[in-house]
Design brief:
7-stranded mixed sheet; Rossmann fold; single chain; alpha/beta; 211 residues
């Protein structure tokens, strides 16, 4: 899948949103800010409680680093050492301008030559919710390939969201994934320690996957 780079059409879509709407929730194609904030909190809930030492967290598909802004406003229980990664040079440039002290990576992790360090947690918010012009099978292959790659760099766990099948209607440009399909894939390829969160009133669900 990654050889033909079809997933880059998704990247171009987000860059178009950034050009149109700038550094806002619309610029990363979230329709409204309160829902975006809900997603940031749900992503951070992957962090298991009870730890006081700093936690290293990679925001995979960091966009304009809005998750980092959310972390600054809502200080979590344990301090988070934030790093961001995005395939888009435009988003990484913007994030580096805003937060020069953070570490950012600009690369395609499906490129065999790409390497990153390990992190306690990796979150992927909105990376797999839109498939744009890809077919379901093309998007599924990209999704599964990327999950395997990303999980290899997470020492504790990862969080990611996809669109739910438990909806009144589905949009062709979004990626709706059945629970059983995802559960089987995770158990067979990554880990059987996972949580599906479908409780935060959006048309999606978030998965926490732990070692």
């Amino acid at each position: 899948m990654h050889n033909d780079k079809k997933h880059l059409s998704i990247v171009r879509h987000y860059e178009t949103c950034l050009e149109k709407y700038g550094d806002t929730h619309l610029g990363v194609d979230w329709p409204n800010k309160s829902d975006a904030d809900t997603r940031y909190q749900v992503m951070l809930d992957v962090v298991k409680p009870g730890r006081s030492s700093p936690i290293s967290l990679l925001d995979f598909g960091c966009g304009a680093s809005h998750l980092y802004e959310y972390i600054q406003q809502h200080a979590p229980e344990a301090p988070i050492v934030y790093s961001g990664l995005d395939i888009s040079e435009k988003f990484v440039h913007l994030s580096r301008q805003k937060f020069p002290n953070n570490t950012y990576y600009c690369l395609d992790l499906l490129d065999p030559s790409s390497e990153i360090p390990s992190f306690d947690y990796i979150v992927m918010n909105g990376v797999f919710t839109e498939k744009q012009g890809l077919s379901f099978d093309e998007m599924l292959t990209y999704f599964q390939t990327m999950l395997i790659r990303v999980f290899s760099y997470a020492q504790v766990g990862i969080a990611f969201n996809v669109m739910s099948k438990q909806v009144d209607w589905e949009r062709d440009d979004l990626f709706h994934v059945p629970f059983d399909l995802l559960a089987s894939f995770l158990r067979q390829n990554l880990s059987r320690h996972f949580v599906f969160r479908h409780d935060y009133r959006l048309y999606e669900y978030t998965t926490y996957l732990y070692r």
